[in-house]
Amino acid sequence: MRLLTFARRPWDAALVRWGRVPGIRTAKVTLAAVLAYVAADSLNTTPSPILAPLTAILVVQVTVFQTVTEGFQRVLSVLAGVMVSVGLAAIAGLSWWSLGLVVAASLVLGQLLRLGPHTLEVPISAMLVLAVGGGAAPQAATGRVYETLIGTATGIAVNLAIVPPVHVESAGSAVAGLATRLGDFLRSLATQLRAEWSRQAAQDWLTAARGLSVTVLEADHSLLRAEQSAVLNPRGGEVRMAQPRLRTALTAIEYCTIVVRTLSREIFDRTFYLPPELEAEAYSAAARVALADALDAAAKAFDGVADVASGAEPLDAARARVAAQLAELHQRRELLGRLLLVDPRADAAAWQQHGALLTAVDRLRVEIEAAVRPAGQPWRPPPLATRPRRAARRVVGAAGQTLPRVTDRSRQAVRRMMTTAAGAAAENLAIPDPRAARSRRREAGAEPSVGRAGVQDAASPATEPDAASPTGQPGPAEPGAGRWPSSE
User: Which of 13, 90, 250, 400 is most buried as measured by Cβ atoms within 10 A of its Cβ?
Assistant: First the structure.
């Protein structure tokens, strides 16, 4: 099979094989450091360009996406530190107050830029530039920025060009391992149910069921790393094909762990609320055997789920085997339901607890079926512009919350200026002759001053078209036009 695959797609087969060679990341880190040093030394950034290989070592990560993210944050932190310190270094130099000022400003800037673990890189870069001081500070700052850019670009290029890893196989193994662990748990519980049963056994199995959720986080972390490995990766098609199957299986298995914990809780409650001398009779021998058979069928179905997640065999064959085991689980559940049937008027507690147990078995069957269901739509990596857009929104929102008063004041001032200008313009249009305005005030005498509405009413006759004009344009000005109407 491997020979046939190599004959059809030799390049892809070689990449997959080389990607599994131990030490590939060590080789890439070493090569990136050497190339960064050579490039920085050729460009003569500083007399000892050691920062370039150091940046390359720190930038190269497990996936290309993590490498690009690490490089971008490191460049941003260095630029921020340089901008904070370069002006102060040329003026004041290194002293206790300048050091404290630079460190405080750098930390605040790093928190505003949301650099996370790279926040401390901002004051480090600022202190290194501040230590040079004087006229050499700009040159040291420029060299530090150039070497950071060279190291970042070299690390990204090396990780992108030499076998960019995809972590589909490890994610599939993690999901399959989780399904296998659930199957082993159900088999062990079935074995215990067929043997002697006690309150202590029920409590031990409930404690063990509560510990199943820990492996879910590990499998989710592995799948998340596989999803990140598809970003900016020429081999990302393998992840895009496998991700819907793995994510569907992991989601359903996570629900199955909750159902198994609920099932164990119901078994414990039925045993715990009986007198100590009757705890072994919580379930009849036939009911315990029927429940054990149902759990065995569910365990075999989980084995099929593990095969689907790992891709160890054709998916159609694995899904068909899971469907057959689920049909058997349904039959055994029907038998269990008949054995647990009680009269609710005779024993209401048993009726309620048996119903909860049967509901848990039904829910387990539904979730196992969902784990192997084909995905409805393909998966694509999230766009890289998502995080910068969110960061821009946070910055704009913070600015809006910080300066709301300044914005409101500026808008109110503009409105007042526009209102004043409009009133002045209307008054000038209504009374073009200053002498007419003085005569109007003499005629008004002690009458109250007319407001803005009066100015607009007075302006309207002067601005209306002349009805006698055939063109509808204003007629020639007459003596006294534009004056206030007399009181006669």
Answer: 250
Cα–Cα distance measured from residue 441 to residue 423, given in angstroms and rounded to the nearest whole number: 18
Long-range contacts of 43-51 (CB under 8 A, 24+ apart): 43/146, 43/150, 45/143, 45/146, 45/147, 45/150, 46/140, 46/143, 46/144, 46/147, 49/143, 49/147, 49/150, 51/143, 51/144, 51/147, 51/148, 51/151
Rg (CA), the chain: 39
The model's pTM is: 0.60
Q: What is the pLDDT at residue 185?
A: 95
Cβ atoms 127, 99 nearer than 8 A: yes
Instruction: Tell me which amino acid residue 181 is.
Output: R
Hey, which CATH number is domain 168-371, 1.10.3470, 1.10.8, 1.20.58, 2.30.29?
Answer: 1.20.58
Helices (H) and strands (E) in the chain, counts: 19, 0
Q: What is the mean pLDDT of each run of 10 residues along the chain (488 residues)?
A: 42 42 79 90 85 88 79 86 78 80 87 84 84 72 87 87 79 91 94 86 90 86 83 75 88 93 90 75 86 94 92 86 93 92 84 90 94 80 56 48 44 55 48 46 46 39 39 41 38
> At residue 200, what are phi and psi to the nearest 5 degrees?
-65, -40
